[in-house]
Design goal:
By secondary structure, the chain is mainly alpha-helical. The protein contains five helices and no strands. The longest helix has 13 residues. The two termini are 14 Å apart.
Length: 93
């Protein structure tokens, strides 16, 4: 499933741009119902789909080495949670 932070970030950005879910879906090549499920965190889309949504919202998805995640979060004012997992990891669960 899509991480709650990412889902809320997409929704917040969409609203700040005064776009509807249909607008974002059209821009990213998705059906509105599929985009809605992503925004609600109810599905597990491919990375390429997340990239298309990010582009539609003028955002950039970046991969950060695991050892730098806490540093990046500290720089952006996000406190890391001890039980928090990265959205994507090269290591198996």
């Amino acid at each position: 499933m899509v991480d709650a932070f990412l889902s809320k970030a997409f929704q917040s950005r969409r609203r700040s741009l005064h776009l509807t879910q249909q607008n974002v879906a059209d821009r990213s090549g998705l059906a509105q119902t599929n985009y809605s499920q992503i925004e609600q965190g109810k599905t597990d889309p491919r990375l390429s789909t997340l990239q298309e949504i990010a582009r539609a919202l003028s955002l950039e998805l970046m991969m950060i080495p695991a050892e730098l995640v806490d540093t990046v979060k500290a720089m952006t004012g996000q406190a890391p949670s001890p039980d928090e997992k990265p959205l994507f990891s090269a290591e198996p669960d």
